[in-house]
Specification:
- The two termini are 23 Å apart.
- The strands form 5 sheets. The chain has a 5-stranded antiparallel sheet, with no helix packed on it. The chain has a 3-stranded antiparallel sheet with strand order 7-12-11.
- Among the domains are: 55-191 and 298-334, f41 fragment of flagellin, N-terminal domain (Up-down Bundle); 195-289.
- β11 (265-268) and β12 (271-276) form a beta hairpin.
- It has helices spanning 5-32, 43-97, 104-125, 182-187, 213-223, 295-306, 313-370, 374-399; strands spanning 146-148, 157-159, 167-169, 175-177, 189-190, 195-201, 204-210, 233-240, 243-248, 254-259, 265-268, 271-276, 282-287, 292-293.
- The chain is an alpha+beta fold and 407 residues long.
- α2 (43-97) packs antiparallel against α7 (313-370).
- The protein is rod-shaped and about 140 Å long.
Length: 407
Amino acid sequence: MRVTTNLIFDKNYRSINNSQGQLSDIQTQLASGKKLLRPSDDPVGASQVIRLTEEIDKISQYKRNNDLVTNALELQETSLRSINDVVNRARVLTVQSGNGILSAPDKQALGAEIEQLRNQVIDLMNTRNASGEYIFSGFQSSSQAFEFNPTAADNHIEFVGDNGTNVVQLSDSVTIQSTTSGKTLFEDVRARLDYSFSNVRGVTFDDYRTKNQGSFDQFHNSNFDPAVPLNNQYRFDVVTANEIQVTNVGTGALVDTLPFESGKLVTFNGVELTMQANPGDSFQLDLNRPEKTNLAETLHNLFLGLNNPNLDQQQFSSLVDDTLVGIDNGLNKMARENSSVGSRLNIAQSVENTLLDAEVAFQKARSSIEDVDYAYASSQFAKQETALEAAFASFPRIANLSLFNYI
């Protein structure tokens, strides 16, 4: 084969150029720490790196979501704990106010503290996060959840938010509720189940009260008919000097027969009645429709009652009973929500741990594909540098070979 001078020069040029390019690539790998400089270096590996990078970016977003949820739930937990402490103090004062020997100034002194506790509860129900958003306003987070209007005829503390709850994605398959509406938590607190009297004929009540609220609640829950009001009415007929028959007005069914003596105590499903009556007299006991009340409104009503000298002992005792049941129901509702918040915090922590493990696994897999092995790359760099130096050294000697040297 005839080797021309041009061929010798061209081959050496290409060899030196390739060596320089390879040396440059290795130097770039060492400088960047990346083995894959272009997709053509490893098409399959490059596609895997893209997919793994997308997964890692998604995990980073989920971690940010997790931080937001954790902060929101911890703030909610702190607010509920504070409200719980305030309401428990109000409960102690409520029990104290039920002492029948308290004078009007004593009640006013209790009322002054109840007023401060009520204001604290309203402030806590309007808690805002670091962004200035009201956490219990639902989707209306730019405006406060509860407004207090002391001059209103009714419902002095009104919920002005909505029922919205925020849900945040923590992973591909896990979503979690980050907020709870104040309407669900504070507004829709079940009030004390109660009764009223109607169609009183010849009966004079000396005293009446719900002595055993649990028994009455059970009777009310089992028998209240929201569709047919007559079924909620019970007629008490004094049939003899020592017997009362209780009949359901709607169905006509005989419900109970009670021993009776005028002026003595009569008990019916937790309700204690003391009355003056004769055979032929009667009255109706009507089950009131279940109602819901605002927790702060319950405290406000007690404050008004403590400062109202026109309430008789019977009315004030009923107010105290209403307040205690409202407070207890509110505390129970907050306890359930606190438990729910704790569960959601545990879920968020568990998901975060899973995300951290997955992130490490994905980063390790990506690193094995795209990151350079410095020991191997350094040896390759030295090898390629030696080859290039040899090419530079040998080319002039080959280029100087000529037949003219032998003529």
